[in-house]
Specification:
- It is a single chain.
- With about 375 residues, this protein is of the alpha/beta class.
- The chain has a domain of about 160 residues: D-Maltodextrin-Binding Protein, domain 2.
- The chain has 13 helices and eleven strands.
- The strands form three sheets. A five-stranded mixed sheet has the order 2-1-3-10-4, with helices on both faces.
- Strand 1, helix 2 and strand 2 form a beta-alpha-beta unit.
- Helix 4 packs across helix 5 and helix 6 crosses helix 11.
- The chain is globular and about 60 Å long.
């Protein structure tokens, strides 16, 4: 072989080798070297509740996006700690994560309820999530967690919940006077509100409501939605379902993780935990649209429940009661700061949305006359 031929062959081998390296780089993309982490998440919900399905929607998105390098295992309410005590469990490290609502720990600081079930200023739950993400809410919540309460907890918000019904009653509610003296189940600042309206309030997790009603511990109750209510048998202990209320006009899931464990995770895992909450928020809302509506119709047609709109007089009395609570709560500087931030958001965002929204009610009545009982 001549010197020229030798050089050509050597060059060919180099190019082939370089091509193989390049092909290998394409065939084997860079993958994370992050160590696999498994987190235990306990919910505040019974296994059969639709909220458990919504918690699983979050878990599925985390597990799928993490490709096996970050995994969450689901534990049902009460598996390790009481459903109302998941904050303590996450803070103390007995559980890694929780799927709950802030109102379940408002007994530690009433400001917790402002991030889910606070005064009615006019925003719905979607607009409330907008305030949390883009109106200063998440920064205020972080201040509450880290500076005021010194919690070892990091939280994300998910799922704009529809207005919660006034609830289940043995007799239809025709005026605000009808609720006075009743023993009633609710939670959070809604308990303060209903007490101001003359009720005696018991704060119970969902799984304890029907047994309490059967024993006469309570006379009436609300939980959250037609699906949850139907699944735990609300229609077996009361037949009058009052829809609409100012006591819990907005709420969202709080997805907690022990802050020290969160901080120890790789940045990509932290991002997955955050963005999965946003993705699950939409998925859970869309699930609720179908399932809540289906179950409401089944309550009417199959369970023979008397579904009624809460009278305007009750709404008016609730607004008046909220006014008194707002004055009282506003004596706490932090709570006043939160409520002022919400009202500033409502003033511009809800103004735009209400001024711009089409006449949905008119369109509905046109196509489905004599359906709405409003």
């Amino acid at each position: 072989m001549s010197s020229k031929d030798t050089k050509t062959a050597t060059r060919r081998k180099f190019l082939v080798g370089a091509g193989a390296v390049a092909a290998g780089a394409i065939a084997m993309p860079q993958v994370s070297r992050a160590q696999t982490a498994t987190l235990k998440m306990q919910t505040s919900w019974p296994a059969t509740d639709i909220f458990t399905e919504m918690a699983q929607q979050y878990i599925t998105r985390v597990n799928d996006m993490a490709g096996g390098r970050l995994k969450i295992d689901l534990l049902h309410g009460g598996a390790v700690v009481h459903p109302f005590q998941v904050l303590d469990g996450v803070h103390g490290g007995q559980i890694d994560m929780a799927h709950t609502v802030t109102v379940y720990w408002y007994g530690k600081h009433k400001a917790a309820s402002l991030f889910g079930t606070g005064p009615v200023f006019g925003f719905n739950a979607n607009e409330g999530l907008g305030w949390i993400h883009n109106g200063g809410g998440k920064e205020l919540f972080d201040e509450l967690q880290t500076q005021i309460m010194k919690l070892n907890v990091k939280s994300f918000f998910s799922m704009p919940m529809p207005t919660q019904p006034l609830g289940w009653f043995k007799k239809p509610v025709t005026s605000a006077n009808d609720v006075k003296g009743l023993k009633y189940r609710t939670v959070g600042l809604a308990a303060d509100l209903m007490q101001a309206m003359g009720m005696a309030v018991a704060q119970l997790p969902g799984g304890e409501i029907v047994p309490a009603m059967e024993r006469g511990v309570i006379d009436a109750f609300e939980f959250n939605n037609p699906t949850s209510d139907r699944r735990f048998g609300a229609h077996n202990v009361a037949k009058n379902y009052m829809l609409g209320s100012h006591h819990q006009a907005t709420e969202y899931f709080e997805i907690m993780i022990t802050r020290s464990k969160y901080n120890a995770l790789p940045k990509e895992h932290q991002a997955i935990l955050q963005y999965a909450a946003e993705a699950a928020s939409s998925a859970s809302e869309w699930l609720a649209m179908r399932q809540y509506s289906d179950d409401l119709q089944d309550l009417i047609t199959k369970e023979k429940v008397n579904v009624l709109r809460t009278p305007q007089g009750v709404f008016d009395a609730q607004i008046k009661a909220w006014d008194g609570l707002i004055d009282t709560l506003g004596k706490d500087a932090f709570m006043k700061k939160v409520m002022d931030s919400q009202k500033a958001w409502v003033r511009k965002v809800v103004y735009y949305n209400m001024m711009n929204a089409t006449d949905y009610k008119g369109a509905f009545n046109h196509h489905f006359p004599n359906t709405l009982k409003l």
